[in-house]
Amino acid sequence: MANRVGIALGSNLGNRLTHLQVARDMLLKLMPENDANYTQAPVYQSEPVNCPPESPDFFNTVLEIDYIGTPYQLLEYTQGIEFHLGRGIVYQENAPRIIDVDILYFGNETIKDTILNVPHPEMTSRRFVLQPLADIRPQLILPGDKATIAEHLHHLDSDEPPLSLVQSDW
């Protein structure tokens, strides 16, 4: 049986929209062929958060897909997408990047270890994740949580400026 999996995509180098599209298309190849469905949020532009000075603005979005496999298999695949698109080893925390592919949630699973944390531990404190996720799953309640994504967004205590809509259909 497939799990519903939320994945955040971000890019702030090169042709940001193309990078998001290529990553999305690679992720869609993971879905089971019969009755698979996915949902994609609009693409937003956001100012970098906790990034080095002079970092370019990000394009961010969220996808939700059907996935059959383990969370660790998905992690390996998402890291492969980053490598395929040219993201090398990052030596500086939050450095500009061609693509960032993060697993936000994996069905009802909760995992906390050295290489994988789901639900993503910082997602409910980041506007650039909450806004696109609220566009596609406002009533989602993450495992171990009590508030919906829409409620997290409404009560977000963040210095992040509002996001700018880049493109609804991409």
TrEMBL record:
One of its GO terms (biological process) is folic acid biosynthetic process. Its EC number is 2.7.6.3. Residues 7-138 form the 7,8-dihydro-6-hydroxymethylpterin-pyrophosphokinase domain. One of its GO terms (molecular function) is 2-amino-4-hydroxy-6-hydroxymethyldihydropteridine diphosphokinase activity. Keywords: ATP-binding, Folate biosynthesis, Kinase, Nucleotide-binding, Transferase. The keyword Nucleotide-binding applies. CDD domains: HPPK. InterPro entries: Hppk, Hppk_sf. It comes from the Bacteria. Pathway: Cofactor biosynthesis; tetrahydrofolate biosynthesis; 2-amino-4-hydroxy-6-hydroxymethyl-7,8-dihydropteridine diphosphate from 7,8-dihydroneopterin triphosphate: step 4/4. Catalyzes the transfer of pyrophosphate from adenosine triphosphate (ATP) to 6-hydroxymethyl-7,8-dihydropterin, an enzymatic step in folate biosynthesis pathway. Belongs to the HPPK family. This is 2-amino-4-hydroxy-6-hydroxymethyldihydropteridine pyrophosphokinase. It comes from Oceaniferula spumae.
